[in-house]
Here is the input.
Amino acid sequence: MRLLIATDAWKPQINGVVRSLEHMTDEAPAYGVEVTFLTPERFRSFPMPTYPEIRLSIAWRRQVAAFVEQAKPSHVHIATEGPIGLAVRSFCLREGRAFTTSYHTRFPEYVSARFPVPQTLIYGALRRFHNRGRAVMVSTPSLEEELQGQGFRNIRRWTRGVDTQLFRPRSERILDAKAPIFLFVGRVAVEKNLDAFLSLELPGTKVVVGDGPSRSELQRSYPDARFLGSLTGKALARVYASADVFVFPSLTDTFGIVLLEALASGLPIAAYPVTGPRDVVGASGCGALSWDLREAALASLDIPRDRCRAYGETFTWRESARQFFANIEAACEDIAVA
Here is the structure.
């Protein structure tokens, strides 16, 4: 398989889309797959309104066509619905090429949180985008059910994994803060619903790792919380291992790779019972899901860390990659059968 992956999300962004695609590349040789990326690095770009950390590419049709033809892919996967994804989709439809897609981000909810745009209009556009592909991959059963209700077709499951060598319990605790430590890791933006976490009356210390457009405002509003900025690699793993509970207040995430990183580090999860936490934590006994987030956070303090670690070890990037490449291959086989 010579796979071309088109994505608007790419380094230096730190998010689940980028991490997932990087790990698919790492695992590709084990499945006999050669991966080529078409990313914003190849185009001029401009900052996204209200979210300047994300840059939108100016993907000209001729440039995209030349790149795809030069890459000579046997398969095409479109990871995002941005300018690059749209341009590659247009090329594939024009040339009669099959392609698959994946649904990573709840754009209807994210856009509605910033602008007065009806979610039904955005879901309609996304439905048209994905339904022209041979398959759309989603991360959880709950998300699959939701998208089916929105009229999405040809849905296939693609789970996520975690690096259990990097994210693991450690004897050292590097955070010099009053215990217990309640941790959040992710984008510091309105869609993450961080007010719901930072406004809780909890013992100990609240710690936020990540950056984004809401950081300055939240730091002013919650001076007792610790904001550490963006961290990656071992520095991030050491912070996970120094915390006591991972609090995930988002109502809109499709999965949440940070949940797996927390579990692998031995942290129980406190979250709302929504898509993502509901699918990851489930009946594992490794977290507390409640519409009372404070109650969930306090209940999580009693959950054994070794239980969380053992459960986190069941999520591997190797299995995630197996599903990803198998979905793409199966979609093309369906074409041949048809």
